[in-house]
Amino acid sequence: MIHNYLLPVINDIIQIFIYIITIIYLFIILWLALYGISNMVNAILYLRIKKSTNHKNKASPPKHWPSVTVQLPTFNEKYTVERLLSAVTQLDYPGDCLQIQVLDDSTDETAGLISRLVEDYKKKGINIEWIHRTNRAGYKAGALDEGLSRAIGDLIAIFDADFVPKPDFLTKTVPLFQNSALGCLQTRWGHTNRTYNSLTNAQAMAIDGHFIVEQTARSGNGFFLNFNGSAGLWRRSCIEDAGGWAWDTLTEDLDLSYRAQMRGWKIGYVPDIVVPAELPTQVEAFKKQQFRWAKGSFQVVRKILPKIYKRNDLPWTVRLMAFLHLTGYMVHPLMLCLLVLTLPVGLVHPFAFKIFPSSFLAGLGPPFLYLVADAPQTPPLSERLKLIPLMLITGFGISLSTSIAVFEGMTGKGGDFVRTPKLNLSINPEENELVDHSYTQPISPLVWCEIALGFYALLTGCVLAGYIGWGIIPWMLIYTAGFFYIAGLNLIQHIPYWSTRLSKSYAG
User: Fold this and answer.
1) Are 213 and 46 within 8 A, CB to CB?
2) pLDDT on residue 15
3) Cα angle: 3, vertex 6, 8; to 5 degrees
4) Confidence of residue 175 (pLDDT cuts 50, 70, 90)
5) How many whole angstroms separate alpha carbon 166 and alpha carbon 448?
6) How far apart are CA 428 and CA 196, in angstroms?
7) What distance in Å separates the CA atoms of residue 506 and residue 508, rounded to the nearest whole number?
8) Contact, 311 vs 261, CB < 8 A?
9) Are 284 and 442 in contact (CB under 8 A)?
10) Which DSSP string corresponds to 377-395?
11) pLDDT for 134-162, tens place per residue?
């Protein structure tokens, strides 16, 4: 009797569970489609602005050049700091209006190197100061805040250690601050090692899409945008009015950007001024960078997004685009959940896969955005077409690590700021010297989970092909290729020979 009674109840529970996971699956597809549509909208807005003759940022030189403090936050950057100082000390700007601060938290021989370089430049008449902290309180944000307390400039220019600004950077950007509403100005990032290996090719294309298309579209349509942490200038009064640098998130630049704009300041963007920087060549370094950006973004979501939605004076379009901007890394956990649920949903409710148009939009938007990212220093369209698959599988391959970062960002403040080591690498790997092991990231145990997910995706495609058709195979092969590519390249780069030579494995 008990058995006859429990069986229908268990059956009902199973059916309810099946319906729940199916609904979740469909919800994920629609949510991903929203981000895909957002990419499409940004690309269209960019193309409209690109056709306009009024989008150029130009201004006449001021009668009196304002004082500028150039801040260079560094931490154990012995490979790039000499190049950085060489570039910054050659900035073409009135010497009596320029101050250079090296905000150094180094714990290795970089500190001694910077000290000697700064003394040499001082002897040449350069107004340069070495500010060395014995602790990393607040990490980069803490260093910037301490430097600000000793800065003389009305404007603050910031360059990370791997950036190489041209001499005319300040003379092109400072005149734009004659607009009193402008609180911050961001320029476009270029790449010193775009073609180093397949990973840097993929990264360069993704960054180009962000800077050429997304930032231009946001800037030209009055949406919230962000200072990207380097190759830009702040008005000092804007920083102070917005509450200063804070280190309760790992993305202090994004945090301050939104706080400043909510105070009424404008962030400008100049796509025509390009400052090259180095892309991480190792998988672990790249994943750590993306982890920090993703976690920090969702810390800002928790801190800032509710305040934005309480601002009834902001148009709904501005608030919606702010949501999509701040939560952009949500794509990764959504993709991961989609993979995990595809097999059970396909077995019990294959009709769910008939919602093809929505999932198609989710996949079409990003490639379109990156294909229209055409500007000087970018590859021709034919090359970008070839790189699209590589960029897509790279995004799929890091989805596990980035999903963990999103979860941590949604549940906690602060955290360890794991820097991305930069090594001043040439485009040709064979020309580079051996690299200090302390500057390379140890391999994460997640690599084995990524391999397992690759096999799971392959299994899912093989099993479901008979249920819902062979159309599922290409989709699952993208997952498989992504996880195998990231995990495989990571393992190869940690073979002793390659970990020191930073090989050109899987070069594109």
Assistant:
1) yes
2) 78
3) 115
4) very high
5) 43
6) 6
7) 6
8) no
9) yes
10) TSPPHHHHHHHHHHHHHHH
11) 998 999 999 999 999 999 999 999 999 99
What is the arithmetic mean of pLDDT over 14-33? 86
Sequence-distant (6+) residues with CB within 8 A of 463 are 343, 346, 347
Find the helix or strand (DSSP H, E) in which 275 lies.
strand 266-277
Residue of 224, 230, 186 whose CA lies nearest to 300 = 224
Report how far residue 268's alpha carbon sits from residue 176's, in angstroms, rounded to the nearest whole number.
9
Structure tokens at 465: 């092909």
SS3 content of the chain, % helix, strand, coil (to 5): 60, 10, 30
**Structure-token match 């956990």, residue found:** 333
- Residue the block writes with tokens 């599988």: 393
Helix (H) or strand (E) holding 103: strand 98-104
Q: What is the mean pLDDT of residues 83-102?
A: 97
* Closest to 147 in 3D by CA, of 103, 107, 88: 103
Look up the pTM and report it: 0.91
**Distance, CA of 508 to CA of 493 (rounded, Å):** 16
The 10 Å Cβ neighbour count of residue 126 is 18
Q: In the predicted model, is pLDDT for residue 412 greater than 80?
A: no
* Catalytically active residues, by annotation: 105, 253
User: 3-class DSSP state for residue 451?
Assistant: helix
Q: 198-234, pLDDT tens digit by residue?
A: 999 999 999 999 999 999 999 999 999 999 999 999 9
Please name the residues in contact with 25: beta carbons below 8 A apart, sequence gap of 6 or more: 338, 341, 342, 345, 352
CA dist 252 and 300 (Å) reads: 9
What does the block give as tokens for 135?
Answer: 């602790």
Which of 415, 414, 431, 413 has its CA nearest to residue 423?
A: 431
Total residues found in the chain within this entry: 508
Look at the block and give the residue holding tokens 């370094």. Answer: 285
pLDDT band at 504 (very low <50, low <70, confident <90, very high): very low
What pLDDT does residue 3 have?
60
Give the whole-angstrom CA distance, residue 164 versus residue 162: 7
Please say if the pLDDT value at position 429 is more than 80.
Answer: no
**Strand runs labelled E in 48-92:** 68-74
- Please tell me the distance from the alpha carbon of residue 127 to that of residue 110, in angstroms, as a whole number: 20
What residues contact residue 296 under an 8 Å CB cut-off, 6+ apart? 249, 250, 251, 252, 254, 255, 409
Going by C-alpha positions, the residue among 140, 122, 17, 137 that lies closest to residue 73 is 140
